[in-house]
Design a protein that fits this description.
The complex is a heterodimer. By secondary structure, chain A is mainly alpha-helical. Chain A is 61% helix and 6% strand. Helix content of chain B is 17%, strand content 41%. Chain B is globular, with a radius of gyration of 11 Å. Classes of the chains: A mainly alpha, B alpha+beta.
Chain lengths: 754, 75
């Protein structure tokens, strides 16, 4: 539903630039470890709306924005996906090396800025050393420097710069002057001749060096740029990555063959090339790090993170707190969103009244109030809930708690064959499957990503909430006691979705997507206070995306459903018959002396009959009646069938379609009182109520399981690299929905429920 | 030499050998799990399959079943 234009750019070189038209000629790549403060710095430098997250690899999208360099003018700053190293373990890291190194077709950056977390310098220097070998102008930005004192650490930026032979700029949070210094350093670097043949810092053993040189000779000129040290850097990368599936597809044949043959020869000789190459870099770090960093005083008492983790990672207490937190979050979705929803509904009512006051022709007025305001409006009222879900998921990520949840839930995830990190996309699935599917890119193996993609759309996304709300309202009239039952039923639907998703993962992981368990390596970032401004920017950007979506896809869907339900119009004879009946009512009232109320009631009844006749004869009505046999066993008649079919474009369309079907105008779905009453009045042909409790339950089960979201299918097609998996997802979910609804309805009837 | 998950909590040790295979092992190496590196065990819940270790100033969690291939020398 909330498909994101910038979200999926498999080739970062061709993506749209946030800088917009006339984007600057110079590109600067901003690279760093996950959690190194990269996205925060990106936002501070560009004022962009990119999302900040504290969970390993949350920046799965390649974003770029305009950055004004002092004395040079604007450059395009590219936010490279977070990477521990420039190796291709995951899709993100492959993108990272291609963008940073500028491997064709990605354009070569004029300079690279590599972030290093000063509090974890030893490990972050690994990426810095790798980037340095690429021979491009570069600047190291030291982040988290303001946290050094609290930890009793010191880092000497000048000493580091001297050792590396590249400029190093500390960038404390809230220090505007430091950003200027960084900008000047980058402007100067951009002015240097590129590429640069830097002297090697790393000294491998002669045997390892022979392997590297042999592979380096096969690096194509377009990659090495004729620089020997850069060719060796790419050779090391190739040697470390030959058996990574993400890697093979993008590599020149000669380079791949050379690296593979050198690797297998080293294996035969009993050597460990991985260790030889990696340890050479860490040797340099270990030998030099004391020169520019150290501990000024011993680490004192346990840090805050340690103390909090003692509670939150406690196997029982931590789990109980997690469940408690989730309960509070889902409760607040309804409590907090309610007044805002009321406000939106009032605004929509005013808009409707305004349109009616314009005195437009009946057809246009009907289109504006029913299709535009009714259709889009019934979706718009869910904006508050959707934003709240994004807000909660965002805070959980930014604070670092999400990594703890992965820690707690690993046992469950492993039992069903999901990757440990799959838990975060599944949680995001409560908001929307589209960003959740994009979040699967943090997993290294294609099999793990696919398995997660196949089950994430089962999670109760925000688009299902309107349908559940309506059905629950039909089931339980609003009384003081019923609110508890309503809440419980909603919670049950969430629990149902989680259980089904886990079960589906267990089945798919043992059949279609067989594979070994992937080992889990989880970084535990220190807890950080989520920052208000980036969170606000994220919400603003999500609102924009949602409104665009509502203004395009959903408006189109609502208009189409409206047109299909409105045309062809009732025949002239029928219209004349209706006019005659109306006149008869008025005449009867006059002769028999009925009150005006009676006349209104009679006329309303007639109008409803007319509307029902109109819908039965419309295109959608005809389609619904044709497909009725397919839905009959689930307890759905042709009218529900119309809604279900319309909902395959987007689930929310169901509520607006149903409101058109029952002929109620201006129905806000979150205030379903009038719609609910009309729906209760609907009868089957035999005169029995249409929406029995069993029908409502069957319908909710259908919506819980069916894959009714074009955006999800589109993003799965793109991320899975082919239409096959999207077709499979649609097929298995929809088949599962039909079977389970069938079981609920037929089984319920056998058990004597109605 | 003992496997890293059987260290007493908080006791300093040095990595001795990194087992495992393929990309997982390579990832461990690139995160600085190298023989000779100081390391200590931060957390080992009674229930649950993950342990948390600290090395090079970073905290990393991994499954006990994967951690058995990482050997350490207690100091």
């Amino acid at each position: 539903m909330l498909s994101d234009g910038a979200a999926a750019m498999p080739n970062p070189g061709s993506g749209p630039s946030a800088a917009g038209a006339g984007s600057p000629r110079l590109r600067v790549a901003l690279a760093g470890n996950p959690n190194s403060g990269k996205t925060t710095l990106f936002n501070r430098l560009t004022g962009s709306r990119a999302k900040v997250a504290n969970y390993a690899g949350a920046t799965v999208e390649v974003e770029s924005a305009r950055w004004e360099l002092p004395g040079l003018g604007p450059v395009e700053l590219v936010d490279v996906p977070g990477a521990l190293s420039l190796s291709a373990h995951s899709l993100e890291e492959r993108v990272a090396i291609e963008v940073v190194a500028g491997l064709p077709p990605a354009p070569r950056p004029s300079a690279i800025v590599v972030l290093a977390d000063a509090t974890e310098l030893g490990r972050h220097l690994y990426l810095v050393l790798q980037a340095r070998e690429l021979g491009l102008p570069m600047v190291v930005a030291l982040t988290m420097v303001d946290r050094l004192a609290g930890l009793g650490l010191r880092v000497d930026a000048d000493g580091l710069a001297a050792a590396l032979g590249v400029p190093v700029v500390p960038v404390p949070v809230d220090d505007h002057a430091a950003l200027q210094t960084l900008g000047r350093a980058v402007a100067e670097a951009v002015g240097h001749a590129s590429p640069i043949d830097r002297p090697d810092l790393i000294v491998e053993s002669p045997t390892t060096r022979a392997d590297i040189d042999a592979v380096a000779s096969t690096v194509p000129e377009a990659w090495s740029l004729g620089i020997a040290s850069r060719a060796r850097a790419l050779a090391r990368w190739a040697l470390l990555s030959t058996d990574e599936p993400e890697f093979k597809s993008s590599l020149p044949r000669a380079l791949l063959d050379a690296a593979a043959s050198r690797r297998s020869r080293a294996n035969e000789e009993g050597r460990d090339l991985d260790h030889e190459i990696v340890s050479a870099r860490y040797d340099w770090i270990d030998r030099h790090i004391d020169r520019f960093s150290g501990r000024e005083r011993p680490a004192g008492e346990r840090s805050w993170t340690d103390r909090i983790d003692g509670v939150l990672l406690h196997p029982l207490l931590g789990f109980a707190l997690f469940v408690g937190l989730m309960t509070v979050i889902f409760q607040s979705l309804f409590v907090v969103a309610d007044p805002i929803v009321g406000g939106i509904e009032t605004a929509l009512d005013h808009a409707s009244a305004f349109v009616e006051s314009l005195g437009l022709s009946a057809g246009i007025e009907q289109f504006l109030t029913e299709a535009v305001l009714g259709g889009v409006g019934s979706v718009l009222v869910f904006l508050p809930q959707i934003l709240l879900i994004f807000l909660f998921v965002g805070i959980l990520e930014d604070s670092g708690y999400m990594a703890r949840v992965v820690f707690l839930m690993d046992r469950v995830m492993k039992a069903v064959g999901l990757h440990g990190r799959a838990f975060v996309p599944m949680m995001s699935g409560f908001a929307c499957a589209v960003p959740a599917i994009l979040a699967t890119r943090t997993m290294e193996r294609r099999r793990d990503r696919l398995l997660t993609m196949m089950v994430v759309p089962l999670m109760t996304c925000s688009a299902r909430v309107p349908v559940y709300s309506l059905m629950i309202a039909v089931l339980y009239p609003v009384t003081t006691e019923s609110t508890v039952e309503q809440g419980l039923l909603m919670a049950a639907m969430y629990a149902f979705s989680v259980l089904v998703a886990l079960a589906a993962a267990a089945v798919l992981g043992r059949t279609v997507l067989k594979g070994k368990h992937a080992p889990l390596l989880l970084q535990m970032p220190p807890y950080r206070r989520p920052k208000a401004r980036p969170t606000w920017r994220m919400l603003r950007s999500r609102t924009g995306t949602f409104l665009r979506e509502a203004g395009t896809v959903i408006l189109l869907g609502a208009t189409m459903m409206w047109a299909l339900l409105t045309f062809p119009r009732t025949s002239a004879e029928d219209a004349a018959a209706f006019e005659a009946k109306s006149a008869e009512v008025v005449a009867t009232a006059a002769s028999e002396g009925h009150a005006p109320d009676w006349v209104d009631d009679q006329l309303r009844l007639l109008e409803q009959q007319r509307a029902a006749q109109q819908i039965r004869g419309s295109f959608a009505g005809q389609l619904g009646q044709t497909l009725e046999p397919l839905f009959e066993p689930l307890g759905f008649d042709w009218r529900i069938a119309i809604g279900v079919i319309g909902a395959f474009s987007a689930r929310e369309v169901f509520v607006s379609t149903l409101s058109v079907v029952v002929g109620v105008e201006d129905v806000g779905a979150d205030d379903p009182a009038p719609l609910r009453q009309e729906i209760r009045r609907l009868r089957r042909t035999d005169g029995s109520p249409l929406f029995t409790p069993l029908t409502c339950l069957s319908l909710m089960v259908f919506f819980a399981l069916a894959c009714q979201c074009l955006s999800t299918l589109a993003v799965v097609r793109r991320e899975a690299g082919g239409i096959g998996w999207a077709v499979f997802l649609f097929g298995y979910m929809t088949a599962l929905a039909w079977i389970c609804s069938f079981a609920v309805y037929q089984g319920g009837q056998i058990l004597g429920f109605r | 030499m003992v496997s890293i998950d059987s260290l007493p909590l908080g006791v300093p040790a040095r990595l001795a050998a990194i087992g495992g295979e393929g990309e997982f092992r390579r990832r461990l190496l690139e995160m600085g799990f190298l023989p000779g590196t100081p390391v200590h065990l931060v957390r080992r819940p009674e229930i649950g399959g993950l342990i948390e270790v600290e090395l090079r100033g970073c905290r990393v969690s991994l499954r006990r079943t994967d951690a058995v291939s990482i050997l350490v020398d207690a100091l």
